[in-house]
Structures are given as C-alpha cells and as structure tokens.
TrEMBL record:
Domain annotation Transposase IS4-like: ranges: 5-42
Source organism superkingdom: Bacteria
Protein's recorded name: Transposase IS4-like domain-containing protein
GO biological process: one example: DNA transposition
Transmembrane segments annotated in the record for this chain: none
GO molecular function, one term: transposase activity
Pfam families reported for this sequence: DDE_Tnp_1
Alphabetized InterPro entries for the sequence: Transposase_11
Amino acid sequence: MMEQARKKKGGVKAHVLYSLEAQVPAYAHISTASVHDSKAMKFKNSRT
C-alpha cells in the first residue's frame, strides 16, 4: 500500500533577543514557524 503524503508541514521558531551588555538572552519566545520575527517582537512589547 502507498502512504499518503502530508498536506501540511510543521515547525517551530525561537525568537531570541540577546543582551550584549549582560551577554545573555534578554527575551525568548517560541512560536510556530509561520510567525514572522517582527510580529514576535510586537508580542514582546505588548507583554511588558
């Protein structure tokens, strides 16, 4: 029997804002791969 092909791909993306002064990540957000980086930063700004 033939296997059915997947219709959608899955993926995750880690959005990380790195602090150069402290040399550690200042902010990290995990989202689906379809979320654009600029949208993730808007999410950060609305949470603070």
